[in-house]
Amino acid sequence: EFSYHYHDFHKIIVFLSGKVTYHIEGKAYHLKPRDILLVSQGAIHKPEIDPSVPYERYIFWIRDDLSMQELNTCFQKATDHSFNLVRIDSAVQEHLRDLLRELENSIKNKDFGDEILRNAIFTKFLFYVNRIFLQTSASLTADLILLILRLNSF
Questions:
Q1: CB 71 within 8 A of CB 126
Q2: At residue 138, does pLDDT exceed 60?
């Protein structure tokens, strides 16, 4: 059982399996396999985990001092839009699954250059998370504008 808490770093959760509801800044997200959840630093959150089902996920803790600050954009947009969940289509899911496996393998290996490779793969992962989240965010904004226009026409 977790209580509400916050971190001084960003967090990305790629949900694989289980029965979990994540509460972030007053919103509840019921997770489905392959969901991507962004938790910005300082965001008050807690997971609500059903212990009868195994909970599997990837978690990435990301400091705010990345060498490429643009890769933190998704966290700012999540905060700005008060929306932290990205549900992606199956083609993108497969691509990210392969990328995560590649990252996991690079962490296990201790061969020459593996740290460089690991950083490159992680940067690519963050690049895709930002691209996916920013497209979703733009789509949500467009949908909201259309809804407001429809409501104003009544």
A1: yes
A2: no
d(CA 11, CA 13): 7
With beta carbons less than 8 A apart as the criterion, state whether 36 and 97 touch: no
Query: Rounded to an integer, what distance in angstroms lies between the CA atom of residue 27 and that of residue 55?
Result: 20
Please give the model's pTM, rounded to 2 decimal places: 0.81
Neighbouring C-alpha atoms within 13 Å toward the C-beta of 115: 0
Q: How confident is the model at residue 24, as a pLDDT?
A: 96
Q: Which residues pair with 60 in a beta bridge?
A: 12
